[in-house]
Amino acid sequence: MFDHKVTDVFFDLDHTLWDFERNSALTFAKILESNRVKVDLNGFLEIYSPINFEMWKLYRENGITQSELRYQRLRRTFDILKASVTDEIIDALSHEYIEHLPSFVHLLPNTVEVLEYLFPKYRLHIITNGFEEVQERKLKGSNIHHYFDQIINSEMAGVKKPDPYIFELALSRAKVEPRHTLMVGDNLEADILGAKAMGMQVVHFNSNNEANHDVCKTIYDLIEIKSIL
């Protein structure tokens, strides 16, 4: 399966291990109600999710700032819904979203089973584009923090995947050569192409229904990792 022996496995966090969509929906259900924003939750999420995906792509490419990301994804959603929501409320929602999101701890199917399987055999690490405090709370709240040796985030790196430096930092901290690593992530551009460019071996966990490709092996359930490692 792999050209070189794997000693270290690097995972993305959101959409790969931590069930971002489910936890995000629960967060919005809580904060929209507490701020008395009268919109249909399912209708809101249907508009918000693709906008958030697009905004994160811009953020990865340094096209927008963190504060613009947090504001614009909500403003654009409410504008499309023709919901009258003030900037003051949007600021409150933005703050409360980051505050409450890590308190929901649902993981994607088979996450713990796969980590339990890998943990005795490989060193496990995280490379995430999320913000340090939020990602730490997600890992600890969902009780998977202890599986990981190195946890590298874009805030400490000063750059975001697929920038080479975040992978360089992760490899340096883990003290491992790229050819002896495997990167598992959901985003083809940020996780897979970014890691592959560094000489890491890669597996694409296609949890977002991205288009088919021949860049590397694709899996659709984390449990498939047990058959390749």
UniProtKB/TrEMBL annotation:
Q: Which domain of life is it from?
A: Bacteria
Pfam families xrefs:
HAD_2 (PF13419)
Identify the InterPro entries for this entry.
HAD-like_sf, HAD-SF_hydro_IA, HAD-SF_hydro_IA_YjjG/PynA, HAD_2, HAD_sf, PGP-like_dom2, Pyrimidine_5'-ntase_YjjG
A Gene Ontology molecular function term of the record:
5'-nucleotidase activity
Family matches, as PANTHER family: PTHR47478, PYRIMIDINE 5'-NUCLEOTIDASE YJJG
Protein name stated in the entry: Noncanonical pyrimidine nucleotidase, YjjG family
